[in-house]
């Protein structure tokens, strides 16, 4: 091959990489930075944090940490699941507030591990980040878009420390979205995809332009026998479906969505603003609502329908003018549901990415909760039980390894039974110290009476909390 052809091929490869980077931003619901200046004196670090995967094998999760110059511990915005890069408008905005920002930083596509190893990897990163001297552990916000929004919700359900969460375009009813709706979209695209294969290999962007639902191709990475098996077991499905964990959320949380989303139907967030019909570019009988599928009890309800009455505010918002940035509204209720009216679901909707509009900002919401720290956190019965199940080594979401000594030297690695016990006791101790008037131990004893299988874990955890408390006093 001559030099001219090499240069041409390299240029094509760079363009393809740039296009794929654009897709990454679309799937993560990130804005490309055009106007926000990137601050000076920001230190970047790459971390490799060990964790144990679902088989107990030690792996490493990559993390990129951005630290503005400061003499004091900084609030942290953790962008879950997808990596956040320097061309992101959100990153520049957070850093200009003087906040630290971190995210996983992997080249590999972890969609096939979303409900399993990705939960452990993201939790391991947060565990390590909370212990950094530069980070204020009382002021950690979790945010994310699409699969990252799912991860933000799951991390909030699993842990007691976040002071607030912002989930954008999140598949809150993951069972519906991935076990029922995703296969339907894939079958809807199948004839066109088969025709393309007959024509020969097509590049990714050409493929996207020629499918009936272009961005439905992302579901191909989620649809694996392993994922299907997990969702086919309803107990496991409930454990990894955020809307079924509504009684485990214990910090303020904001959901941001739009009515035309074709990948993550808004019906699973709230039915209050669901359009009855789809756009004319889709068949009239297109199956996009929860009621279109034979869902088991509980899975047939939206996230809003699972929340306690009076605990949330819902708003239908107009489109933001193109080129504008609007702060997301919120009030003093625990859960905020902000839905943008982009009309009926349409084939090219894909999180609304192809509809001209401005951008949202969660700065005011996060700023408000950083000022409060963890003051608005609370402990539900569901969260307490979930934490003690993890202490006992019985967690479905974060299975413990090494309780029988099999993990050997990995007992101090995230994912080990020993570390889960330490983390759980630490989180409950912190809560007990911040809420001295609340009888935490009384609630734990009551749980032991209701669930005898957790009695030993409750007793052991209370003893560990007392030892930690005594150590702090000395």
Which characteristics define this entry?
474 residues, alpha/beta, Rossmann fold, two-stranded parallel sheet, disordered N terminus
Total count of domains:
2
Would you report the number of β strands? 11
- Overall geometry comes to globular
In CATH terms, the superfamily of the largest domain is: Alpha/Beta hydrolase fold, catalytic domain
| Radius of gyration computed on alpha carbons | 23 Å
Q: Distance between the terminal alpha carbons, to the nearest Å?
A: 73 Å
Mean pLDDT across residues: 87
Largest sheet: 9 strands, mixed
Reading the helices and strands in chain order gives HEEEHEHEHEHHHHHEHEEEEHHHHH
- Low-pLDDT parts are 1-21
CATH class of the largest domain: Alpha Beta
Strand content: 15-25%
For the record, the CATH architecture of the largest domain stands as: 3-Layer(aba) Sandwich
Helix content, binned percent: 25-40%
Helix/strand-derived category reads: alpha/beta
Strand order of the largest sheet: 1-2-4-3-5-6-7-10-8
Set out the fold topology.
Blueprint: H1 3-28, E1 42-52, E2 58-68, E3 74-79, H2 89-96, E4 100-104, H3 117-130, E5 135-145, H4 147-158, E6 164-168, H5 174-199, H6 204-210, H7 219-222, H8 225-232, H9 234-239, E7 253-258, H10 303-306, E8 312-317, E9 325-327, E10 335-340, E11 359-361, H11 363-372, H12 381-391, H13 417-434, H14 440-450, H15 455-473
Parallel strand pairs: 3-4, 3-5, 5-6, 6-7, 7-10, 8-10, 9-11
Antiparallel strand pairs: 1-2, 2-4
